[in-house]
Amino acid sequence: MSAPTEGPGTAPTATPGDGAYRESQVSHAGGTYWLERSPDGAKRLVAVAADDSVLRGFTGNVEAVDGGFRLVAETTSENARALRSALPWLTPSRFGLHTSVGFGDRLGLATPGHVRALKAVGAAINPVFAQQSIREMGRCGRTPSDVLDDATWGAFQAGWTDPVGGDADHLEALDDIDNTAAAGFVFYTLDPKAEVDGEAEHADAATIRQKVEALDWPSLDSDLASFTKAYVGQRLDLEHSAVELDEESVLRAMAKYGPSMAHAMAMYRRLTEKGIDCEVEFAVDETDYPTKPAEHVVVVRELQRLGMEFVSFAPRFVGRFEKGVEYIGDLDELQRDFEVHAEIARALGPYKLSLHSGSDKYSTYPLIAEATKGVVHLKTAGTSWAEALRVIASNDPDLMREALTLALDSFEANRKSYHLSCDPSRIPTNPTDEEVARLMDVVDSRQVLHVGYGAILAEFGPRLYQVWNDHEEEHYQVIADHFVKHLKPFAAYAQ
Fold first, then answer.
1. Which residue, 214, 244, 264, 479, is the most exposed by fewest CB within 10 angstroms?
2. Is 281 a catalytic residue?
């Protein structure tokens, strides 16, 4: 991406007001743009240009000024699209095999903090600021366009002028493809977890045979005899080991993942029909059992045979990747798991390994960065929300207590679809201010609040946003400090 330039038609002298975000000011192709904040916290786009045609894509008030024209516009979705057109580096682009990180943001407020962390680390890590799963969008009352637009305004505000990504995360249905494609995403995480057959993990040989025989083989453009001939008895030599494909492991892999591959291919075909310049990730991380090396081989080779081109694969690694807390498990075992999956990815690809539920798993980052040699994607989701609650705790402990009470009352509903080990009974129901300040540092309360976001935002959204708006700088710095710890281990391997 080339640096911003003035371009033809020099803009008139730009003098941002006292409420301007100075780092947002940028000149490109005849226009100068910046973001301003009014005393009440509302934000607006300001732009100046010598030629009013530069400003025609925006909806706002345009006035003649000395030497040109001045635009003042609201931060609407329409103007976000116009800004992406005017400043092309804000339009999501593909990252290929380069090291990348997804910055999930449930609130649409965290991107300036994410930018600050990236600048502090200073490594060639490619950011995906626009990333939220369809599940989370529903709980937060957001749309795909909201996610992309909020990331656009945040990156612009923080002065980010390098490429950005856009992840349509954890898509499970054909309609998900349609809705996120219409918004402008370029990275599609296909997640057919509902079709993964968990019973195949421990079923006996006869049951596995029945499951495989019952597969919808025409949808997989194959048959059992052809599949068996292609895999049974084969061996994949890796850098330090090999994967032996015996009949038991091959049939079990197909019984477990065959239905999910058929559904993923239906989503993939829907996507390719749109002719979008995009890239795809295949994810099976949100399943109950780790992805074995033989399963990795069979799944990837079958998807490749069916014509899926993907840039990354998210297996289910060993151990427990729970929301908002450190990795739970044997790190030596995890390191070996990372290494063998990374070697398979190099042998069959190359493609990235993708680490999902990656928030706060500090002990794992050096291991996967080294195993993949930087050909990796880290995906974080709710940790920005969890850290934002620190700002609530420090500035409005009464509101934090109310949020905690609601999160506890609604926990059984909130916990669905998440892997958690917290015990709500250990959380004080009427915490002191000192205990409130520590809620996000204790596993039990951190996880309960982490997954309670939907209920909390529905009940207290305006009050919460007011606190974050009033303490904007504190919020950004909390987010930045948190993410520097996530990014640093990848810096030496970033490519």
1. 214
2. yes
Dist. CA 131–CA 185, nearest whole Å: 9
Which residues does 94 contact at the CB level (< 8 Å), separation at least 6? 165, 186, 187, 277, 278, 279, 311
- What are the tokens at 284? 């099976």
Q: For residue 75, give the DSSP letter.
A: -
3-state helix, strand, coil in the chain (%, to 5): 50, 15, 35
The model carries a pTM of 0.96
**Each residue of 328-381: pLDDT tens digit?**
999 999 999 999 999 999 999 999 999 999 999 999 999 999 999 999 999 999
The single-letter DSSP state of residue 492 is T
Closest CA to 159 of 262, 87, 96, 212: 87
CA atoms within 13 A on the CB side of 156: 34
337 catalytic? Reply is no
Handedness of CA 249, 255, 256, 260 (dihedral sign): positive
What's the one-letter identity of residue 294?
A: A
Burial of residue 174 (number of CB atoms within 10 Å: 0-12, 13-18, 19+): middle
Residue type, 113: G
Q: Measured between alpha carbons, how far is 306 from 299 in angstroms, rounded to an integer?
A: 11
d(CA 112, CA 158): 5
Which two tokens mark 266? 């239906």
As beta bridge partners, residue 354 has 377
Question: Count of H helices and E strands in the chain?
Answer: 18, 16
Choose the catalytic residue: 136, 279, 281, 444: 281
Structure token digits, residue 448: 């309960």
Total residues belonging to the chain: 495
CB-based contact 23:159 (threshold 8 Å): yes
Rounded Cα distance, 414 and 291, in Å: 27
Roughly what angle, to the nearest 10 degrees, separates helices 472-491 and 365-372?
A: 50
Residue type, 346: R
**Which residues share a beta bridge with 128?**
102
Looking at 36, 150, 169, 191, which residue is catalytic? Answer: 169
Mean pLDDT within 480-485: 98
- Which two tokens mark 171? 């898509």
Cα 146 to chain centroid distance, Å, stands at: 15
